[in-house]
Amino acid sequence: MGSSQNHTVNEEYNGQPAHTSTGRIKRNIIFIPALLFPALYAASANYYLFHGITELLCVFLNFAVFIIALNTYHITKNHYLMFLGICYGFVSGFDLLHTLATGEVNFSPFNNSSLSVYSWIIARHMESASLLAAPWFVNRKVRADLVFSVYLLLSLVLLAVIFYWGSAPEMLNTPGPAGPKQEASLLILATLLAALLFTVKNQQLQPDLRQLMKTLLLFNAASQAAFLLYGWLPETAAALGHLLRLASSYWMYKIVADINLKEPYKKMYRELSRLRTEFQSFDQRYRDEINERRREERELQRLSYLDGLTGIYNRRFFDQYLDREWRRAIRGNYPLSLIICDIDYFKKYNDKHGHLNGDNCMKKVTAALSGCLKRSSDMVARYGGEEFTVILPDTDSQGAALVAEELRKNVEQLKIPHSDSPIGQYVTISLGVATLVPDQHTPPENIISLADQALYRAKEGGRNRIMT
Length: 468
Description:
The protein is α+β, with helices and mostly antiparallel strands. It has 2 domains: 275 residues, Rhopdopsin 7-helix transmembrane proteins; 153 residues, Alpha-Beta Plaits, CATH 3.30.70.270. The chain has a 5-stranded mixed beta sheet, with helices on both faces. β2 and β3 form a beta hairpin. α4 crosses α11, α5 runs parallel beside α11 and α6 runs parallel beside α8. The two termini are 94 Å apart.
């Protein structure tokens, strides 16, 4: 993994989310000062109980850091926290040895104080050295199993040395400023301060994570400084030192838990929310497009059924509607009536007044015909040229004749001037009416033929009249 890719990973998991985590971790750590006086009392009342509880809490928190960092590395690809997580796993192991070998716990055939001292020194040196080396791993991909193997091998060698050596020299337990144990603490403190300096100056480490690690190192350094006072103020130094080390372990745990556990889930949630929003938006756009297309299709279909000049249904729709009503009349065994009407001498009207006036005349006649139909099932259509048809479902011959007469009168009452008409001074229509009770053996063309014949007789009879 290249440097740019690692930088992106650090920003992703240690950027704004880490900034948010900083405030949350600081709120969680406020309780540490409040525990100082209870810790002093516990240390003075029963040091071994206080020591055991705080050390075991540190062991638990450090091991939790190890488990989280190692098992989330494949998700976060945070090499820095992976390295520290493995380190804290082995530190927790040596701290556990230190805890079990302290006081009256009969853990080892060797001198308990020796094992306790050795384990403590190894754990602190391992932790401080790892914190010093950790910035080197910020933008370097390192195999977790290799890091684990190195720490495992080092730990086994150190354990072998401890058990081979057997007991610690008495001078390691010498209190005061001149003891080798204090010299080891000074070296650990110097390493921690160097780690603090390298961490603060490391610009490859994301600023918010750098600030978190700075606080962690200050806790560690303060804890080590407190332990240096053990020769003069044993109870105060022990209480303060262990309390600060507990704060450091808790701080590290919260860093790893927030960055490696909470932030990836939050990132996934934000991504899912974004995808859900995009999907909903896409779904809405898709639905809108579908609805718009359906509206366009319905409009196109409607336009395909309408006459371009008059706006009423055309011959195509007439054929479909007649066929549908014919089959419905067969099922219901009721009569179906059809009226075919023709504008009298319309060619002469066009020749006299022109096609534009002829079109206006056609529209007015259409409006007059449509105005006579009261039922939604009744339908008027332009059959072709100046011919119109009217379908009257469930209407007998007498009812059809009445409707036809109303149609004729409505057109005549328009009083559209037609000076070239041989039968009057206004535009009129002739109508043929046919009524049948459809059956399975009779096609709908029969009623068209009958109505057309009736229209022919109306024209032959003088026009402006109805024939059935």
